[in-house]
Structure formats: C-alpha cells, structure tokens
Amino acid sequence: MTQKAAVIGLDGSGWHLLDPLIEDGVMPRLDALRARGASGILASTVPTYTPPAWTSAITGVNPGRHGVYGFVDGNVQSESKLMHAGRISAPTIWEMANEQGASAGIYNVPLTYPPQALDGWMVSGMLTPGYGERRTGYTWPVELESDVESWEPGYLCDVSGNWEQDWRDDGLCRRVLTSLQQRVTVLDRLLDERPPDLLFAVLEAPDRLQHVYYRYMDPSDELYDTPEGRRLRPAIAKCFAVMDRIVGLVDDFAGSDGGVVVCSDHGFTAWEFSVHTNTLLQQWGLLALKPGAGLMQTEAARRIVPIAKRILPAKVARRAKGQTFAAIDWAKTYAFASPIPQQGIYVNLAGREPNGIVPPAELQAMKENIAARFRALKDAEDRPLTDHVWLSEEVFHGEELEGAPDVLPVLRDHRYELDDELFHKEPLSDFRHLPRGAHHPDGIVAVAGRGVRSAGQLTGSVLDITPTLLYMADLEIPDGLDGRLLRDAFVPETFEERPPRSRAPLSSVHRDESSPYSEDEEAQIEEALRGLGYI
Questions:
Q1: Whole-angstrom distance, CA of residue 528 vs CA of residue 321
Q2: Is 113 helix (H, G, I), strand (E, B) or coil?
Q3: Residue 293: pLDDT over 90
Q4: 123: part of which helix (H) or strand (E)?
Q5: Which of 2, 97, 296, 493 is the most exposed place for a label (fewest CB within 10 A)?
Q6: CA distance 199 to 4
C-alpha cells in the first residue's frame, strides 16, 4: 500500500544560511524536522544551476540522459530556444509513480511548463510566462487554474529579481513575501481538497533573495554586519518564516506514517568576480574577432553593454547581445564560451558546430589544452585561480551529450562566475562591492518519517531524491537510475521490514518538443533570467 511521501524544495538553500535563521527562531518547523530525522549535504549537478539540478532531482539521472544543461539549448552558433518541459528526455518521478498506480501533486517545480497530463495535478513553476501579469495554461487539469485564481487572484508562478537594482532596498522581499503568502493558501487548499499519494513542491524564494542579498545573509561575510545588512535582514527573515510555514504544511501532509524530504538543488556563496571566458580564450589565441571588432574593447564601449541590459526592452536587448557574437571570426576560433548557466566552454568542433573548424580527431587534445590553460591561471598574488576543471566525459553520460559543454572549469569555490560576454580587455570584473550571491554545489537535505534514523548524518546527490522519494512512498524504484536510495537516512531494521523493490524502467517517453512560447513570452522570461545574472 502506498504511503504518503513528499518533497519540499528550498531552491538554492545552504545550511550555513539556514542555521542562523533557525537559531533566531525563524524556522521552527524545519528545526524540528531536522532534529527528528537525518540531514546533511546534497551535492548539485555540474553545472550547478537550476535547470539541470532540479531536472536531475525529478528524474534520478544525469544531464547526459535528461538533456537539460541550462535555461536555453544550443549556443551562440545555433538558434537558442528556452528550455521547457517538452525537452526533458527522461521519465519523471510522477510518470514513475503514475505507472505504479500512485497519484502525484507537482507544485512549482522549474521546467514543468507547459504542465503535462498526469494522474494527479500540476501547477507549473519557473519559466512559466507571466511575471506579474495575467497568464493562463499553468495547471493540469486545466480547470484547476480557476480554483487557484479564486483562492489567490493574480497568483504568481514565479518572482523575478534584479541583482543590479534590488539590493538597494527591501522591494524584492515584499514581492517574495506576497508570492509566499499565496503559496501557503494554494498549496494548503490543494493538499486538503486534492491530496496526492506523492508530492513534489519547490519554493524559488531562497534563490531569488540570495542572488540579491547574499552577503547580507552570510554571517561570515564582511558585508553582513553593515548598516545595509542590519536594515534588510528583518525583511528577509519574514520571507523565511513563511517558507517555514510551508515546510510545516508539507510535513503535516506526510503525517507520522509518511515521509518528507527537504532539499535544495544547490547552495549559495558570494559572487566576487565575473570571469569573461571569451576574453581568456582570445588571449590564449583560441578565439578571434573580426577586423574592427577591437574598437568595442574600449572603456566607453564596454559600459554600453550593462546599460543596454538595464534600459532596453527585453526583445531588443536579446537581439543586441546576439548580434555582438557576429564579431567572432569563426574561421579562426577554436573554442568559445557557453551560455552562462552552463558554466563552460565549447570546442568549435567540425561536424557539430555550424562553423566548426576543429577536426573530431583533435577534440580531446583541444579539451586538454583548454583545461591546462585554466589550471595555470594565477591571481595577482600568484595563487591558483582554478580549483578544478571538469571534462564533459567526467560528469555526463547518456544519449543527450550533444548539448553538453566540453570543458567546465570551477574557479575559487564558485565565487568566480563564468560569463559569455565579448569586448572585455581584462578577463575579470570585480563585483565584491555588491552583496549578490552565486550558486555553490553544496545544497541541503533533511529526511524525516517512518524508519528514518534520528539525528543521522547524510551525504548525497540531487540525483538521489527520486529513488529515495519512491522508496518512502513504498513504490518500486526503476532499474538503471544514476541516483541511489539514501540508505544512511534509515535505520537498518527499515530495510528488513520493507526491502527496496525494483522494476523495469519506463521504456520511453513521448513529449512535444516544440516551443510553447511566443516571441514576446520568450523575451519576457529572458528579461527575468537576465535580472538574476543568468543570461
């Protein structure tokens, strides 16, 4: 018999930020849940970004199998399109549950737009068109939308932020708080009136707040004990207090006989520098600009880019950035930066890229060349800048490798964020004067419920969420997943009483890969992503 099992995702959360809130009494339900269960660190995917990480959490497989590496597919040589639910190439946890006769409630999970038909219900999350305007088509079944709007008129599927502006006041906090209060009402009504067997819910609020206010939230940061930090933290705390109410709501839904997992797709750290990857590649002789393009490498010209991002309409800004890449001389370019969320470099491979020049036989040598150059990077004090360089084959495997970056460097514990901009003379831009944050691979996990070890210590991966939730729901786990059941969360007797059961994987999934977005919707969503520093 199926047991209730639930996930509540706190996007971007890390214990080093949650612990001070818990100590201040802001999050008593999370504190109590962690105390009676097992908790620890949940490692994110490479790259450490929302689309690949949450998609791995809901499929149990790596990006090389589900095909999601960032917010867009392709790169500057192809016509990039926003990712959406139809582009997920692996079976999802709700499909696995439905196949076994269990219903599922899917709430606010990124990349679930357009919502798909399922046994249960779905309210789509990040990348749903709207952002404060009236929108339709964000629920399954379709008629559920009218219920949501009657419970919370003007319901928000996501909250946009702007790291360049929002750190100055508590306006973002107010927007996030409004959204979270809506989530309390809507999720409470859904669980009461349409209780599923399995729930997977995500709150994007921590990520939005930390992109803007991170250094005001981290007690170890030098900006924490500043007048601005002290002024803004009470408003931030109000948001986390409502998130804690939602943790409690989900925990109550699971009940004493069920199971609940609190997790994040990644953690956070301070965003100190932007790394202009294309500038590095240009200095290394691996990327060339056309004659005359060097005129843009002036201080005045470079200032135009961030100003354009702020003042131009989204559609115009998107087109303008795309046109800057026309300055690349592809016939003399051996490698180029990936879109920002992929945090990597593509080799300009012949036969794969439209303007490729590197022969396939030289691909591996070129990847090693780029990796070696990153490993040799030093700062002004002659200290290494690069912690690690991943080659694609070290982190990805599967049938969806074509979209993967070839090389993925990690600089200074993720405090140095790679970008894809052109026309910078120097490879680094210093942003330490701003309080903003960047993604870090150390996320959170806390497991509570029947058979769970009290005060147990966990280490796992986002890929482990799907098999663990299926087990807690007393469902069979498909063979061949990359993730594993978090066995350390449970006392040994649990497996004697209820051994994990396996089943053959779903043979295939059929999805509509065509874009669900109009041109205006794409521009609107990209503007929201730009505000978070994602594009």
A1: 16
A2: coil
A3: no
A4: strand 120-123
A5: 493
A6: 8
Q: 424 is written with which tokens?
A: 């910078």
At 71, is the pLDDT very low, low, confident or very high (cuts 50, 70, 90)? very high
**Pair 351, 84: CB distance under 8 Å:** no
C-alpha to C-alpha distance for 230 and 207, rounded to whole angstroms: 20
CB burial of 453-492 (b: ≥16 within 10 Å; e: otherwise) equals: beebebebbbbbbbbbbbbbbbbbbbeebbbebbbebbee
Residue 311: in which H helix or E strand, if any?
Answer: helix 299-311
- Going by C-alpha positions, the residue among 191, 65, 203, 157 that lies closest to residue 508 is 65
Q: Which pLDDT score is estimated for 211?
A: 95
Distances (CA, A) of 516 to 31, 129, 133, 201: 40, 10, 17, 23
Count other C-beta atoms under 10 Å from residue 519's C-beta.
10
Tokens of 441: 């691979």
Q: How far apart are CA 30 and CA 366, in angstroms?
A: 47
DSSP tag of 141 = S
Count CB atoms within 10 A of the CB of residue 406.
24
Distance (Å, whole) CA 386 – CA 85: 34
Give me the pLDDT at residue 193, please: 98
Which pLDDT belongs to residue 60? Answer: 98
Q: Which residues contact 141 (CB under 8 A, 6 or more apart)?
A: 117, 121
Interior angle at CA 255, CA 250 and CA 260, nearest 5: 50
β-pair type (477-478, 502-503): parallel
Cis peptide before 291 (omega within 30 of 0): no
pLDDT over 90 percentage in the chain: 82
Closest CA to 402 of 447, 439, 356: 356
Backbone angles phi, psi at 83, to 5 degrees: -70, 155
Segment (H or E) for 54? helix 50-59
Strands 442-449 and 259-263: antiparallel
pLDDT recorded at residue 311: 47
d(CA 239, CA 208) in angstroms, rounded, equals: 11
Tokens encoding 356: 């490729």
Cis preceding linkage at 341, omega within 30:
no
The CA angle 442-447-449, to the nearest 5 degrees, is 175
Using DSSP, state whether 412 is helix, strand or coil: helix
d(CA 54, CA 157): 16
- The residue behind tokens 């964000």 is 138
- CA pair distance 99, 14, nearest whole angstrom: 34
pTM above 0.90, yes or no: yes
Tell me how far apart the alpha carbons of residues 398 and 60 are, in angstroms, rounded to a whole number. 13
Q: Is 99 exposed, middle or buried (0-12, 13-18, 19+ CB in 10 A)?
A: middle
pLDDT for 375 beyond 60: yes
| 525, containing H or E segment | helix 519-531
Question: pLDDT tens digit string along 114-147?
Answer: 999 999 999 999 999 975 455 689 999 999 999 9
- Beta pairing partners, 490: 452
What are 394's two structure tokens? 């070290």
